[in-house]
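Blackboard transcription, Thursday session:
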Amino acid sequence: MIEEISLDVDDNGLMEISRKLGIGLNLEEMRKVREYFKSEGRNPRDIELQAIGQAWSEHCSYKSSKPVLKKFIFGIKAKQNLLVIEEDAGVVDFNKNYAYVVALESHNHPSAIEPYGGAATGIGGILRDVVCMGAKPIALVDPLFFGDLNFDYKKLPKGVKHPKFIQSGVIAGIRDYGNRVGVPTVAGVTYYDESYLTNCLVNVGCVGIVKKNRIIRSRITKKNGKKGDVFILLGGRTGRDGIHGVTFASTELKEKSEKEDRSAVQVGNPIIKEPLMHVCLEAVEKNLVKAMKDLGGGGLSCCADEMSYPEFGAVINLETVLLKEKDMKPWEIWISESQERMMMLVDKKNVDKVIEICDLWDIEYSIVGELTDDRRIKVYYHGEKIVDMDIKFLVEPPVYNRPYTIKEIKEHEKEIKEPVYEETILKLLSSPNIRSKAFVIQQYDHEVGARTITKPLQGKIESLTHSDSVVLKPLPEDYRGIAIATDSNPSLMKISPYWGAKNIIDEVCRKIVSSGAIPHSFADCLNFGNPEKPERMGEFYEACRGLGEFAKALGVPFVSGNVSFYNESEYYSVIPTPVILGIGIIDDIRKSITTDFKRNGDLIYLIGDIKREMAGSEYYKLYGYNFGYIPKPDPEELKNKIKSILEARKLIKACHDVGAGGLAVAVCEMMIGGNVGASIELSKIDMRTDYKLFSESSCFVCEVRERDSEKFEKIMKKHNLRFYRIGRVSGNKLKITDKEKSIILPLHEIKEAFL
Amino acid sequence: MIAILRMEGTNNEEDIYNAFAALKYPVEMVHLKQFTGEVKKELEKSIFDYDGIMIPGGFSAGDYIRAGAIFGARLKKISKELKEFVREGRIIGGICNGFQVLTEAGLLPGIDDVIVSKPQISLGVNDSGRFECRHIFLKHENKCFFTEKYEKNEILQVPIAHAEGKFITSKRILEKLKENGQIIFRYVNRNGEYAGYPFNPNGSMENIAGISNPEGNVFGMMPHPERVFYPYLHQEKKKTGDGRRFFESIIEYLRRRI
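(Written on the board underneath:)
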């Protein structure tokens, strides 16, 4: 069962061992391993090399990204930070007694191989990240990126699944898992681009709520643990599913991945997860849990190491682990990433109480080991010692300052001919990245928990439109709410990772503010290609620089995140895709604003400076124009806009940020939700009509009652904001006039295009 | 006291709990195993400790076979007690998955007997073939003890969230339901008309959304009144939550009964 492996071989021999065991370590790393075991005075066993392979994978160790993250993303100070970056999820101040918890991560590689299971277990994993902080999950989000749905089947590279198949599997996986565990899925993105053909991106996020005096750490320190405390492993059984998940996620996908890596995808079971969450939270509420961590990447091995490091050690008896199949090898048990498992550290005297809760919910458990004070990880299998290593060696892998090159960006604009406006607006509304996502959103239960105040689809029951963000009321006893928005901007990221990233932060903030909330924290999931290629590393560097600079200027911290590299195959590398989950706070959920127009006769305002910044716009993409100036949002200006919108909040009846498709699409969406028309007059803005209508500059559209217009304008002026009164909510058509130009579209045609 | 019955996969119990708690009516979560005696002695409970049992929505046991089938089958262990419970005029309510459980357990429609051994109603897969979550319009066509506080023919806005909600039954049962005034809620459009999909979200026979037993103390519905208990939970903002009176009706009946 256990194999001793001699590392007393040449370089080729070392690499042969790494390959044979499937542990993905490079030569330099293998040499370090050899050196380590020399200092231990013995040969390693297979299980020990497997443990190192998992711990040192890109996925677990962030060895390529850490230096860049440290430079730009980490360390934004804010008084709301309670426990940020260092744990599985970020913990942020909510009110006097409660904190909210945020986590966001990717499940890209598994979803490309097995869309349904990959996406479902993504949800499972992110829920555990939140539960292990002691928090109750209250919302899920799922930003998804697929290849072109109309991609020619005949041209599909070998071993690659068609985007239609992937999309339907991913959505079904999220639906069947999320709905079953009873956590509402409230926000997300569905975006299509050819670059995601071989590597779809499936990001999943979760928000939870926890009493401040019940926050649980995953790291054990002298404050929360002592020698002799007991490790209880509970939930699902350990099987051969999810073996080498993290090493598989730390390389490019290949044609053979379909066959070879299927076992790397876990199998989810929401009907273990649902009661498992009850058990964990009940044990936390009863103050029985000293530390808790979910078993994710790297399985039991990474979990035990990371919990104990740096102050303690652990002894684990591997034969006590409950298995799905009998004849698993010890190394398989040690690194399996089977789902629905949690590890708790419990005081010996409280073990029976935890077991009692498990029994009520029919959750299986086993006592697998103990905390020690020697800072070593020791694993026994039927009495035989099979792992005995310094935890520090495992948990502190080599870090790389990878070389990077930064692509120079040249902006230029060309004259284009004016479009047929009616046709262009309808084409934009029906384009895959803009059209209604109701068929996705309505398959997810976004109401369970009875705390979804403003909905992912807003407006009239028979005529729904997109929201900017969703407002939740986490606590029955408090009107304070949380606004949730997700955003990315692949079209701009493709042109400029630096400016693209800044635009993403700008837009996610505007989406939060549109609901009447103030931006409070971010979680980031950074999806990139192979970091060993300097160009990709350059994209990563620039994106982080953009994100960090903008967030720092706003004073809004990144509290949690995840990096997913190697979203690349021999055919494509994904557009650099940082996904941001933005959290806002609203003092009273009854004051939240939605995007749908409310009443005939109300005034419509455009807030912000609309500019001829057309690069990456849906309008330019529609006609294949690959030039134009990049929108360059300014954090100081954004702060000003935020201040004024929030100050004018009670005067604003509807609010929508200008995003993909520009002003024209924003107004159409507001009309659809209100089931009402609008007449728009643009001659006061000095630009050609198409630039005004389709520019994606940082702006808002607001609906205001006529009687409030003076007060509203006063507030905008006070903050020196550029704003235009551009029209009225009226009738059942969209009527746009701009000097002699007149554009008319009936509401029903707009709806048909959008739906 | 109301018992909210839970097992693995029920996941709307808190929403219902909060509704009763907000109205200051005593309420408790009880695991099914506590009624069926599959727990330690000190955790056991009797259904007769409660005036009413509510079965919440969710995916009991995963609903991998047929929605509500496993929960329904497990309830049969105490069917003798449940029969007595219903005959005494205590209440049993099921929302969404809870409705599916009540039909699977044979507690609805309650026409031939308080409990029938084979289900007479099926809540089948939606015509759209998929899970749908959105707000819809309901017409309150007949009163039962769960809905006394609504006006007859009043139109409510309530969310649905299910994949299996298509009400199907035999001609005979359907006629009886009508005859007895057991059809409590039907799906309609904004103007109160029967209007087909998407207003009837699942293809239910005769737009049926919720029914009671002939006596009116066992009731099930697919939409979720607990999710519009407060005005600010509505899709279209309202002055009061349409779901509130559902819980007030139950409480008023139970107080009267005692």
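Lecturer's comment: The mean pLDDT of chain A is 95.
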